[in-house]
Structure formats: C-alpha cells, structure tokens
Recover the amino acids of this structure.
C-alpha cells in the first residue's frame, strides 16, 4: 500500500486528451477552484496568525508554542493515519470532507477566539480557542490535501484529472509537506529513469506548484484588501478568515456533492491494488513513534552520502521552521514598511500580503524554470543551490533595508524554492516518481528516520519564539547559521565525489 | 429625403414596434433577466453589509455606509428583484395556462416593463452618484422602510430621486397587475374550476398589488411634499411618524403576500409534477390563497406593536395575524399531502421546492411567535425579525422562484440546464441560507438589536458565521448564473415534453 502521504506519481501525458474543463465537468471544476482557494486562504491566514496574536496581546513565545503544536498535530495525524488507515477510498473521501468542515470551523475559532467564551460561556480563554483552531486546521492539513488526491473516477493516475489537480493545488510548503520516497539517487545524483520520464516529472511538479501558487496568490490579494480596508489587525484578520471559512464551506459542500451524488464509484486503490502502479515491491512499514535506538540504527544503514543529504535538508527545514512564523512580525513590526501605489496606501500589516504574493509569483516562476533546470543541471547541485536561498533568507530579511521592493525580491527568491519541494529527500515525491518501485524498495529512506525528522522539527518554532523574544536579529541570524550548516552537509557528497 | 434615411427610420420604427408588441413569453424572459440582474445588485449590497458586520466596531466601513447598504438591499430586493421575477414567471406561463394567446394589454404590459430600468436607476441614484462622484448625490441611508423623521430631515437629494423611483415602481406594478387581472378574467378560455393553482395565486397577487401599491404612491407623494413643499403630514401633530408607519405597512404587508403567493403557487405547480400525483386538496389551496389575500390587508398593525398602540387594537391585530396561520398551514398540508405516497423525482425543481417548504415552515413558526404581542414587544427590534423575514423572503420566495426557474428553463430557452451545477447550486444555497438564518436567529434570541452596524464584541462569532453563510449563498448564485449562461447558449435541446409529463395526472398546458 502506498503511504498516505505519498502524492501520486506523474502520469504519462497524452496530447490528444480533452481540455481540463471538459475532463473535470463543471461541478468538479467548482470543487477544484474552491479547494485551491481554501487552501490558499488557510495558508495566508496561518502566515498572518502571529500578527493577530500580537494584536490580541500574545508574545512570540505563544506564537512559537502554537506553531509547534500545529506541527505536533500534523505528525500525530500522520502516525494515527498510517496505523489505522481508512478502509476504503470512499472512507478517505468522507474523512477529507469532514476535514474541510473542521478547517472551516478552525478558521472561525481563530477569528472568534477573544470573544467565544463570552458567547458560549466556556472557560477556554482566547488561547484555548486558538489552540482549538490550530488542532482543527492540523486535521485539515493531515486529512484534506493529501487524501483529496484520490478524488477521481479512475483512480489517481490520469494526467490533469481532478485528483491530480486537487493534490497539486493543495500541496504544502516546507513545513507542511509530507516526507515521501527517496533513495540513494539523492545522494549520488544518478538518474535511473529516462530523460523523457524526468521531463514529465518536472512538468508535473510545475503544474502542482503553479496551482498551489495560484491559491496562495489569490489569498494574498484578498488579504491585501482585508488588511488595507480594515482599521485594525483584528478586523482585517476577521475578514480574511471569514472569507476562508466561506470558501471552505463551499469546498465542503461541493466535495460532498461530488462524492455522494456524482459518485466516485470506480474501484478503490485500496481494494484493487495500488493504483499508483508501484505496489509490486515490498512496502515500508507504517510509521510509528520512533525510538532513539531505531533512529540510530536506521541512520547507520544508510550510505554516508545519503545521510549527509538528509541531515543537510533537515537542517534547512529546521532553520525555516524556526523563523517562518515570525516573518510577518519582522515585516510588520521590525521593518514597518508602508507602501503607496497611486491613490492606494497600504499600512505595514497590509504590505505583508503583497510580499506573500511575490513569494507565490516566485514559486510559479521557479516551477516554470524547474523543468529546464531539472533536466540540464545535476539535481544534487540544483538542490544544494536552491536551498541556499531559504538558508540565507532569515538573515537577509533582518539585514535588508526597509524597502518594499527589496523585501519583495527576497520573498520572490525564497518562493522559488517551492519548486524544489518534491525533490527534497525529507519531503519530496520526485525520487519515488522517477526511480519507480524497484529502486524505492531497495534503498528507500526508512520511515522511522523520516518520522524522527518530523518529530525533531516540532519544537523548532517554540525555540524560535524564545529566541525571537530575546532578539529578532539573534533568532534570525542563528536560523541562517543552522541553514548554512545544512547547505554544507548537502554539498559534502558533491565535494567528495569531485 | 434621400434613400438611406427612410430605411433608418423604418429600422428604428421596427425596433420600437418590436420593443412594444412582444410575445408574452419573451416579455417574461425580459422580466426574469432584469430581475436576475437586480438580484445580483441587491445581493452585492447584502454581501457588503454582512462584511461590515464581520467586526463589532465600525472599522471596515463607516456606519453610514452600512446604513446605505441596508437601505438599497431591502428596496432592490423587494421592488426590483422579487416583484419583477414574479411578473416574469407570470408572463411566461399564465397566458398559456389559461388558454389565452396574449395578455389583455400587451403594449401596456411592455411599457410597464420598460419603466423598470429607469426606475432602478432612480432608486439607486444615490449609490451611482456616490460611486461616480456626482456632486450632491449621496447614497441613501434612511432604511428601506423610510421612516420619518429620518426621511423627512435628510437633505440628500437622492432621497427625492428614490421617492420618484418608487412612484414609477407603483405605476409599473399597477399596470402589470391590472393586465393580469383582466387577462385572467377576460381572456381565459378554460373554466374557473379548471384554473390551476399558480394562476389563482397570480390573480390574487395581482389584485392585491393593484389595491395596495397606490397606497405607496400616495404615501410617497405626501413624503415628497413634506420634504419639498413644507407640508407636515409626517411631522408634529399632523399625523406624525406613526401615520407614515400606518400607511407604509398598509401597503407593505400585503406586498409581502404579493411576493409570497405566486411562489406558493409555483410550489403547488411543481410538486405534483415531481410526485406523480395530482395536487392534494386543489380547492383548499385555492381557498387558502384567497383567504390569505383578504387577511393580508388586515394585519399591518403587527409591525407597529411597539409604537404605543392601544392595547385593544394590538390584540385585534394579534388575532387576525394568528388567523393567517390557518390558510398558511392549509397550504403546507396540501403540499405534504401531495408528496405523501408519491413517486418522488428529486430533480432540481423538486429539490428547491422541498427546500422552500422547509424554510416556509420555519418562517411560519417564527412568524406565529412574532404575532404574539408580548413576544413581539421583546423581539421586534432584534435580529429575530431579520431571521423571520429572510426565512420567508429568501427561504420561501427565492427557493420557490428558483424551483420555477429550473422547471420552466426548458420552456423559456428550449434547452436543458446542467443538472450537476443545479444540484451544486441547491446545496450551496440551502446550506448557506440555513447557516445564515440560524446565526441570525441566535442573535435575535440573544436580544441583539437590528439595523445598526456596531454591536457588542461577544456577538462577533455569530455575525461572522452569518456572513460565512451569506458568502456561500452568493457563490451558489454565481453557480446558477454560470449554469443559466452556459445552458442558454449551448445546453442540450429540451424537446417538447422535457419532463415527460404528457401522461402525468397534472396540468401541462404551458408545455403544449
């Protein structure tokens, strides 16, 4: 059985296929648009949450704590999900539908956190309701985007099908992405597939990244309007999450209709074998909470080069996890940069949204360039070079002049790294897709190790929050140091092989 | 005059002729397209005012902006969407249902339609002027009920333009209503006993409109005089603001039934066709329609229980208001009896009809409670009334109109709509409306005052929930528009008997 976190491999393309709209049908098209928009709005709301927390009186340590709990929920959902998977594809669909509703409620819980106790008479306090929101949105991340990938009449292997696009649209960014298959290809950079297959893979990555960027860009535009139109951060955030909740409810309704009425009656991959077509080899065991000994043993079994690559990638992830929740605070409070375009004047809170828009544009641009680069440049160099950007980003952000244009350039640059997500050894699916079942079965990274990395990242935002409370510059400088250490590890196999 | 000029003149004359003497079904389509456009405009007002209410303070837009949205939403939906939509369906099918080739006054009917676009511009002149920066014109922010002294004291000239627009609405509506009354009475080729329930409801509504709308015209003229000629009909001892309320609600409550009866007729028309049975209790449906038509003119005082009315008068209004529940319940029994044991087809018209009945029951129950004086005194000024009103006008009326829209779509366009989009439209609308109204009911039961843009912060989550529901409803209507647009242009051809009713036990005259 394919692990639930594994996105479908890139399917073969057929030039004679009908257009996407014709294949999907109007109701599924609405569903896809709603899901893309919902996930984009959830992501932009999460990016703004720290500023909202500041507005209602909480400091960076609480910000870090909530972000860490969010990561813990994501890890927990994956562990539970892997140990007790849904019995059928239909079951997974209903669970994903349920997750969309939970995500909707989670956003509403965030917006109402300061006043829900007064309305309902509950004793949770604002932080309790914020936590409820974090948990509910964690369930959306765990059950929604990944499981929606199977939403298709014919399994999940057709190019451009609803499932592919939904999976594409809801693919997650660095902290959200799910570790998937990898092999020693990462370490040694040797392609085991044909060049055509590699091109198709990059094209598939391009599609999913661009679609995800579209969702994030749409959310950023709406956030710009919300925070520039409202007089307070609380009002702007309420407008943003109200829009997100509405779109989430639309997505849930459309999803329920497509699942229950239009019907996804085709045979389930769970029931008729692995629809991804790579189920012939031995399957990895379901992840469990890793013991330290198991982790050590798993790491020892890997070749040194693979170990260095994984460690390097994990360190870059650690740097990102330490700082990502506080980026909005740096922009709004540290730089406090305003922006005037003609008659429109954006306060610092609203300026952050166009910066995220620049990040989305960067992600799309990176994705468009990725197929060319991916087929011409050694992937090891591409990975190491690409991850320099997120490693340097924290220090660059605090060191940059308080100029909207400079900040937009930084955000666009860091957005480009999204195109590499699928190739990263601790989170990508590309190796699985390129190498196929045989290679994966022989040299896959043990699930124990990937789970251990996910668990190790959980406290990172909290640590980042403590450091940020001491000093933003110190926190972001340390993150860059960690990130550059990671890049050094990524370069070690290259240095040794040359 | 040389060659080309007469041709241009002929062309112009032909265009004018084509614009005046139109087929009743085409006129119905015009009305429906106009109503849909106005619904989108009024719906946008609703979304904007719900946006204001996402936050407890006036920190998105100013309170006056909320007041303007609130005013134009109510006026647009009542006079420019719901009433024209009802006339649209009536023109589209009533002549066929009664065996008439054409309405009694086709040219007058068409002229009444062409009054509506300038009327819409006049009624929304304040909004348009405000957007375009026209000096002196500001969005009208006096509430859709236009109570004095706010309406008499406002110096905004857009209020006068609005009142002129309302006068034009009256002219258009009275002409149209008279056209239907005369058409059904004189052009009918079927016997009275064979007249279907939808036609009965249109007849009753048209008669009510012909009687009640002139009162609005009279009231509007008095208000214009107060504002411009120095009269004092609605100030001081000349009658005061309460006189306005008496006159306004003597018009406006029958107007509610003018809007409700034809949609009820649509339900009675659609349900048998998707239940495989005749309408249960056809006569009781007709009698209840007539009873509602009469009682509607006697209950206006229940809108004014809190104005210091004599307690004995209040009790009288309470009892007659409660009496309306009887024919309303009779209608519900008719519909449920039609469904009972039937062979149900859950196509889009039936889904919307069932949704409409459900919301009507909710609206009826909340309405009965509002009719009781002690409860009304407590809840009259709260969101409870907003919830009740929208259960009736959005839940009953709009759902029934949408049921009719899907049922007669093949008749009006010759093509099929997309069923999957129609189902998506239904579920988005029914869930969105349910969420919104549940939140509004909760706000009302908690005692939150309506008609103001600010409120205590503790109510913010419920307002946010209501806004989420409203946005979902709006998305549903965009899906509907998309479906209409695509299906009208390129939907599958519908054929002569799209619903396979040729052998059905119910009337199918409009399809012949």
């Amino acid at each position: 059985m394919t692990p639930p976190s594994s996105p479908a491999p890139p399917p073969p393309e057929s030039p004679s296929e009908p257009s996407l709209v014709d294949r999907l049908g109007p109701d599924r098209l609405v569903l896809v648009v709603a899901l893309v928009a919902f996930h984009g709005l959830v992501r932009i709301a999460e990016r703004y949450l720290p500023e909202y927390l500041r507005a209602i009186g909480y400091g960076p340590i609480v910000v870090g704590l909530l972000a860490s709990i969010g990561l813990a929920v994501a890890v927990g959902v994956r562990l539970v999900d892997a140990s007790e998977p849904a019995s059928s594809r239909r079951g997974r669909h209903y669970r994903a539908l349920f997750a969309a509703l939970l995500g909707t409620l989670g956003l509403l819980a965030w917006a109402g956190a300061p006043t829900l106790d007064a309305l309902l008479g509950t004793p949770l306090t604002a932080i309790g309701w914020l936590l409820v929101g974090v948990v509910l949105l964690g369930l959306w991340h765990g059950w929604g985007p990944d499981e929606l990938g199977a939403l298709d009449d014919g399994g999940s292997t057709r190019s451009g099908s609803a499932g592919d696009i939904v999976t594409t649209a809801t693919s997650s960014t660095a902290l959200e992405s799910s570790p998937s298959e990898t092999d020693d290809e990462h370490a040694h950079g040797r392609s085991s597939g044909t060049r055509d297959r590699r091109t198709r893979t990059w094209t598939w990555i391009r599609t999913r990244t661009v679609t995800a960027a579209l969702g994030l860009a749409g959310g950023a535009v709406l956030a710009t309007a919300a925070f520039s139109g409202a007089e307070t951060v609380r009002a702007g955030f309420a407008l943003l999450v109200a829009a997100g909740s509405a779109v989430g409810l639309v997505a849930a309704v459309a999803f329920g209709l497509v699942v229950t009425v239009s019907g996804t009656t085709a045979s389930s991959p769970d029931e008729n074998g692995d629809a991804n077509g790579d189920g012939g080899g031995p399957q990895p065991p379901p992840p469990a909470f890793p013991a330290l000994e198991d982790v050590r043993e798993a790491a020892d079994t890997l070749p040194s080069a693979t170990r260095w690559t994984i460690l390097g990638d994990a360190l870059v992830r650690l740097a990102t996890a330490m700082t990502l929740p506080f980026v909005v605070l740096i922009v709004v409070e540290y730089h406090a940069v305003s922006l005037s375009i003609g008659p429109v004047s954006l306060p610092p809170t609203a300026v952050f949204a166009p910066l995220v828009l620049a990040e989305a544009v960067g992600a799309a641009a990176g994705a468009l360039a990725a197929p060319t680069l991916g087929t011409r440049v050694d992937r090891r160099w591409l990975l190491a070079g690409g991850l320099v950007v997120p490693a340097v980003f924290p220090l660059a952000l605090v060191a940059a002049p308080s100029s909207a244009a400079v900040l937009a350039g930084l955000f666009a640059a860091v957005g480009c790294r999204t195109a590499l997500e699928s190739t990263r050894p601790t989170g990508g699916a590309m190796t699985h897709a390129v190498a196929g079942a045989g290679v994966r079965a022989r040299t896959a990274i043990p699930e124990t190790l990937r789970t251990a990395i996910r668990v190790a990242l959980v406290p990172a935002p909290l640590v980042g929050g403590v450091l940020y409370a001491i000093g933003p510059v110190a926190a972001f400088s340390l993150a860059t140091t960690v990130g550059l250490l990671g890049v050094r590890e990524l370069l070690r196999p290259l240095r040794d092989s040359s | 005059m040389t060659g080309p000029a007469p041709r241009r003149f002929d062309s112009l004359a032909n265009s004018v002729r084509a614009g005046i003497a139109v087929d009743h079904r085409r006129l119905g389509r015009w009305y429906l397209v106009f109503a849909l456009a106005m619904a989108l405009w009024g719906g946008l007002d609703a979304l904007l005012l719900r946006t204001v209410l996402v936050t407890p303070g006036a920190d998105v837009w100013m309170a006056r902006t909320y007041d303007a949205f609130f005013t134009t939403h109510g006026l647009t939906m009542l006079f420019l969407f719901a009433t024209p939509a009802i006339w649209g369906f009536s023109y589209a099918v009533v002549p066929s249902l009664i065996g008439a080739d054409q309405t009694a006054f086709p040219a007058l009917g068409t002229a009444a339609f062409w009054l509506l676009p300038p009327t819409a511009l006049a009624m929304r002149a304040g909004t348009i002027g405000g957007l375009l920066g026209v000096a002196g014109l500001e969005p009208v922010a006096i509430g859709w009920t236009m109570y004095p002294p706010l309406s008499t004291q406002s110096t905004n000239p857009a209020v006068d333009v609005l009142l002129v627009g309302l006068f034009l609405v009256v002219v258009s509506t009275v002409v149209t209503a008279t056209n239907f009354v005369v058409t059904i009475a004189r052009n009918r080729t079927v016997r009275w006993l064979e007249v279907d329930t939808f036609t009965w409801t249109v007849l009753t509504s048209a008669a009510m409109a012909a009687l009640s709308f002139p009162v609005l015209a009279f009231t509007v003229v008095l208000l214009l005089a107060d504002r411009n000629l120095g009269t004092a009909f609605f100030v001081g001892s000349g009658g005061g603001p309460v006189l306005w309320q008496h006159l306004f609600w003597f018009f406006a409550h029958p107007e509610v039934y003018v809007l409700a009866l034809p949609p009820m007729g649509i339900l009675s028309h659609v349900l048998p066709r998707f239940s495989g049975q005749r309408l249960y209790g056809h006569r009781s449906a007709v009698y209840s329609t007539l009873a509602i038509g009469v009682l509607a003119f006697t209950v206006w005082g229940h809108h004014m229980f809190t104005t210091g009315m004599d307690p004995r008068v209040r009790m009288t209004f309470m009892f007659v208001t409660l009496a309306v529940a009887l024919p309303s319940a009779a209608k519900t029994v008719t519909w449920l009896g039609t469904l009972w044991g039937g062979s149900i087809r859950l196509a889009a018209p039936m889904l919307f009809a069932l949704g409409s009945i459900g919301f009507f029951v909710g609206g009826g129950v909340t309405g009965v409670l509002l009719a009781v004086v002690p409860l009304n005194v407590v809840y009259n000024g709260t969101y409870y009334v907003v919830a009740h009103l929208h259960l009736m006008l959005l839940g009953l009326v709009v759902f029934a109109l949408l049921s009719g829209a899907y049922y007669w779509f093949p008749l009006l366009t010759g093509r099929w709509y997309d069923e999957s989009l129609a189902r998506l439209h239904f579920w988005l609308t029914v869930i969105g409306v349910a969420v919104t109204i549940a939140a509004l009911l909760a706000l009302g039961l908690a005692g939150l005052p309506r008609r103001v843009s600010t409120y205590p912060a503790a109510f913010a989550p419920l307002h946010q929930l209501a806004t989420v529901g409203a946005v979902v409803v709006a998305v549903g209507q965009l899906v509907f528009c998309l479906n209409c647009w695509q299906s009208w242009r390129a939907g599958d051809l519908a054929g002569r008997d799209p619903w396979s009713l040729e052998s059905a036990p119910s009337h199918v005259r409009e399809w012949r």
Q: What stands out?
A: Residues 185 and 192 of chain B are 9 Å apart (CA to CA). The mean pLDDT of chain B is 93.
